[in-house]
Amino acid sequence: MKMYLASPLCWGYPVDEVIRHAKAFDFDGVEIRAEHVELYETEVCSILQAKEETGMELSLHAASWDLNLCSINKGIEKQSIKETIKSMKLAQQLGAKSLTIHPGRHSLVDQFQALSKQKLIRNLNYLAEQANQLHVTLSIEQMEPIKKEFIATPEATNELLNYLPETVKTTLDIAHIPLNQKPEHDFITLQRINNIHISDSTPSTYHVAIGDGNIQFDGIIEKLKQTNLPVVLEGFDNSHSLDVLKKNITQLKAFQLLRGETFENFSYQ
């Protein structure tokens, strides 16, 4: 197992600095959020320099905020495809090992469901072709079971994979699994996993710090220790003190998923 840091846990810093922080905290790599690069207008060369300095591995989470690959609105659908391809090109430039994308969702809860699925399959096949040309591995994230999301279980995700080439992989997000289910079930059931996201969740909030939620981690932690897949610590921390990140790291060390020294050795301006 390799432990990655998702860049939004250092949202108060540009991505090149996030990579250096990840190295200081003994992560093996960073999953960069495309919107994070865009917000700070960080140059690719700066990110590559930090990557070379630290030896960090990189993956990328495609732009997804405000987007929907199977929107009934054709303008939103087209822009979502365009933004995903833009993320692919960024992944190629950065030498990112994988590109996680959100699969799209229904525009209305109880209407156009067949059309949404048709659009999604068509657009994902097109994106898979583009990814292959760019030598980028496309990974579809299993979403949370909320209104409008329909790729939110291993069974639904596996069914979608039947319509897509073998080159398309999946991202398992532990925080998206219902709290009354054991995460290891989805780990075993979901096909083509090449990336895993880890954070905690409560009945009302996803992606809280590990230990602040209600996920039953015992079984899945043992599975993670045995896998060769990257495990990405997710969450959001807009502070310069990185308190949320540090709380997560304390739990990762308790789970023996992350090595490293104490926080007293690290200082941030």
Can you give me a brief rundown of this structure?
The chain has helices at residues 15-24, 34-40, 44-54, 74-94, 113-134, 154-161, 183-189, 218-226, 243-254; strands spanning 2-6, 29-33, 57-61, 99-101, 138-141, 169-173, 193-198, 200-201, 206-208, 230-233. The protein has 269 residues and is of the alpha/beta class.
Structure report:
- Strand 3 (57-61), helix 4 (74-94) and strand 4 (99-101) form a beta-alpha-beta unit.
- The chain is built from nine helices and ten strands.
- With 269 residues, it is α/β, with parallel strands linked by helices.
- It is globular and about 50 Å long.
- It has helices spanning 15-24, 34-40, 44-54, 74-94, 113-134, 154-161, 183-189, 218-226, 243-254, and strands at residues 2-6, 29-33, 57-61, 99-101, 138-141, 169-173, 193-198, 200-201, 206-208, 230-233.
- The strands form two sheets. Strands 1-2-3-4-5-6-7-10 form an eight-stranded parallel β-barrel, surrounded by four helices. Strands 8-9 form a two-stranded antiparallel sheet.
- 40% of the residues lie in helices and 16% in strands.
- Helix 1 runs parallel beside helix 3 (44-54) and helix 4 runs parallel beside helix 5.
Keywords:
16% strand; 40% helix; alpha/beta; 269 residues; eight-stranded parallel beta barrel; two-stranded antiparallel ribbon; single chain; 9 helices
SS content category: alpha/beta
What's the Cα radius of gyration? 18 Å
Distance between the termini: 31 Å
Helix and strand pattern? EHEHHEHEHEHEHEEEHEH
DSSP strand content: 15-25%
Give the strand tally.
Answer: 10
What is the approximate shape? globular
